[in-house]
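Repro case for the chain-ordering regression, as requested:
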Amino acid sequence: MTPLRRHRALTRIWASDPGWKGWFTTVNHTDLGRMFMFTAMIFFVVGGILAMLIRAQLATPRSAFMGPEVYAQVFTMHGTIMMFLFAIPLIEGIAIYLLPKMLGARDLAFPRLTAFGYWCYVFGGSMLLFAMLTGLAPDSGWFLYPPLSSTLGSPGINSDFWLIGITFVEISAICAAVEITVTILRFRAPGMSLDKMPIFAWYMLVVALMILTGFPPLILGSVLLELERAFGWPFFQVAEGGDSLLWQHLFWLFGHPEVYIIFLPAAGIISTVLPVMARTTLMGYGWVVAAAVALGVLSFGIWVHHMFTTGIPHMALAFFSAASTLVAVPTAVQIFAWIGTIWKGKPQLKLPMLWILAFFATFVIGGLTGVMLAVVPFNWQAHDTHFVVAHLHYVLIGGFVFPVLAGLYYWLPHLTGRRRFFRLGEPAFWLVFVGFHVTFLAMHWVGLLGQRRRTFTYEHGQGWEAINLISSIGGFITAIGFALVLIDIAINALVTLRGRRNPWGAGTLEWAMPKPVPAYNFASLPPVRGREPLYDDPGLDLRIARGEGYLGDPGDGRRKTLVVDIASGRPEQVVVFPSNTALPIVMALVTGVAFLGVLIKAFWLVPLAVLGVAALAFRWVWSLGTRTDEGLLDAGHGLSLPLASASTRPPGWWGTAFLLVANATFFASLLFGYAFLWTVAPNWPPPAYLEPGLAGPALGLAGIVLAPLGLRLAERLLRAGHAMTPGLAIALTGAAATASAGVLAVLASADPQGHAYDAIVRVIAGYVLIHVVLAAAMSVYLAARRSAGFVSPDRYGEVRIVRLWTDYAAITALLGLAALHLPGALT
Amino acid sequence: MHPAGPAAEAIAALWWVMLVGSCVIFVLVMALLALALRRSNVEGRGDGSEGERVWLVGLGLVFPLLVLLALLAYGLVIGERLAPRDGPEVVTVRAEGRQWEWRFSYADAPGLVTEGVLHIPAGTPVDVEITTVDVIHSFWAPRLAGKLDAIPGHVNVLRIEAREPGEYAGVSAEYSGPGYLDHRFTVIAHDADGWAGFLRGAAP
Amino acid sequence: MRDVLRVFGPFSVWFACFSAVYGLHGLVCSERWSAAGLSLWDGRLALLAACIAAVSIQVGVALMLRAPRLAASSGFTQSVSLWLGWAAVVATLWSLFPVVVTSTCT
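-- result from build under test --
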């Protein structure tokens, strides 16, 4: 087969639908990565315009341009858009676009999930844009502190838009994180062991795990605050046993890791681009990996440093002050690894390198002011002033936007397949760099002089006029610079000549494919022996095209790629991907209806939409797998591998496992909230604790034992060739028992509006109830799959997935049971 | 940045130390970066493994650990010193925030309430018990001390002290809605006679 | 998966211990502590004990990573996880030393 014929055959298999329809049915990571990035850029422009409105308002004292109400919406939306609708989705887009190409796979682990995540992002983001255009945007600051954001301070619908829209967008982040994790761990080129992974993949692995554990606390916070706003369950109202500090803990448990979720991918881009620009390899690969991991986890231990002024005792402040200074160490390791890389290489001052140098100058300042703010007494003075605003822009623009622009210019030939011809990028760079420093250096100073953030104007004669005016002028220069960057990218993407395949002389696999990128990425999957496969074998791209790698035979017309062993990268299975479908967008729409129902208080919509989602999810998973045992498939190079769907741990098992990591973090945050209220909230203990009784615990415990046992019995029966029915029946009985215990707890917490205790008992019981019902539904699904022939004595991976859910439900039920009944039993 | 009390003075000193230190570190890093960029024209260096030790262990690990240890210790010592401790002559007042005004009451003169103006004796440590009746606010008299939040249901205690009699501006420093900008107060520090007169004259 | 757990494990344990000590501190300074008839000195002792436990656990993790039975499949992940193991011990000492030097609940 000639390379051209192979290309045509593979394109037929992998191509998205032609025309406009393709936008809605594509599940291809290249398409969706681009769509993510493009949409994020649109939000960047919107957020940037809001920033300019802010600087226009603050340019002169007593400006009549905006009143406090409009200004509140503008600064809230600026922060919200930039953090949630620009930065995180842009990272997801970059990762979705690049990772399979760098790792040597043909797509991400769960293609339809990519699409579902994208549409959730679009719909959630649209809700917020709609709110802004109708003047109903959230207006209590991007971190939405109650009671100001609750019914007391914001009776209107404004805060609801934030809570609903952002939670919707976070679903998209969780989806992306699950699949990035599974892709990095299992969807790599044959032979790419962990130590041979591109450094960007290590960074993204850390980031994806951080999203899985960092976002759930905020999702929980949003759920609780929405329950308070919609039904009056007083989680954050002190008079009824709540505490507004709980929100701050949940928010910053998310909010601090969030900063590193944004910074680490940018650091990954630098670690990838900088060595190529310096024509060498990264200094201290292992050190950088260790630093990224340490930084990622450390960033969770410092959430309280956003709360230094909330009256927390000095010892606790000292813990977090110490931990906060500690994050400077892995950061320093990375900074010096990069400078060392330049030192050992021969750097070229091309445009991506300029942006990286701008990163150094900016981020180091941001890091140093960060260390200053980590010192508690200084924080007491600078907190909530423009000093903090300046600091965070140094970190986020210097540490995120500049490296991302370096990356964008670096991968531009890859994205467009064209050479950069028009040199608008260089003047744009200088405008942004100079404008940025003018704006924010000035802002540090005015912050130290006492200008508070979020004040819509200031008086004459405070000595702030000149500084603010300089800052505003700098801001407009920066904006012009960014506009030029976007124009530069647009014209270079649209009209210039075709470029070479590997213009920078890079070593990673994404440069080993033709441009424009084919839908299937690699005509055959290349065996990998080093970190820079293209340096090891300069002719690799041609050999890939000639089909000399694995899975080079287009074969039976199914979309196929390899699944490898996590540590060694040894090929283990062949996975078959689903093809184009509108299912993701439909499911995202129906999910959106559920959110909309809560937003407009049409609660009857919610159960209908949930049923719809359940039906769609049923269709979603039903289409996976095969009805026959296919045995071993030829993967090329004389290697025969089984289908992944026939293995005991199919990709879906891994996806489930990491989804449950996020889910468990959610539940742990809930238990933390309960314990927090119990220790700290002023109006505790509640009038009465739950009376344990006998029925609840007994039913609960019986179910907790029965359901996992039933699933294990079912698997044993299946593998012995018998019917699974007895095992599943036991599992369902167990589920019914646990569920009735859950219902008893819900009924016992009679007054969720009267005291936060009853409210949180209801939430815990409700959480367990939902999971038990879900696991039970999966058991029923399993019976259907068995009778349809998808599950057989040799193909029982799905039983393992259901077992995972059942075990998880049982564990949460056990913890929930203990949490609900212990206080009552002890007193 | 015109400190008028021990707390604000200590923090201002801390700031100047950190600013100088940061500038030195910034210049150092930029110099190393420039050095790396220039040196790279020189041919014939090793495989970089000896470089790893200098760059990563020396500069990446040891250097920041030493600097941070010193800074952290300094910060904690100041933090301990600023903490409200029992003393013989501590005056206690109460600040209650609401949208958008501050009400102050005085332990030494029960029943006395002032709105928007906090009276304190100069040269004496004062503990301000801070709370709120509605949303979160923050009590901040920049020239006297750092800020501390007013959280519903909680009472936070801030130690302030004015060295000299005089008027000091104060603001709320946590966004609280449309009236946030003008949510201000004034601290008036009296000399001994003035303070006694204030307590006497206003008390019933 | 073992390699991945080895790499992410040590600092995750640090986070768990750190949060637990912080949680204990919250309890010590809350009304529940005094309601149970315990003094601040008891609290300081409890915190010290918790810190010693945290450091021991962390050292235990670092030593456990050397065990041949849990060895990583490549020299790379083996050495990276060993570094991280000891780095996490340093992080524990660093972030918990305020228990010894600062005042408890003010």
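Ordering looks correct now. The radius of gyration of chain A is 27 Å.
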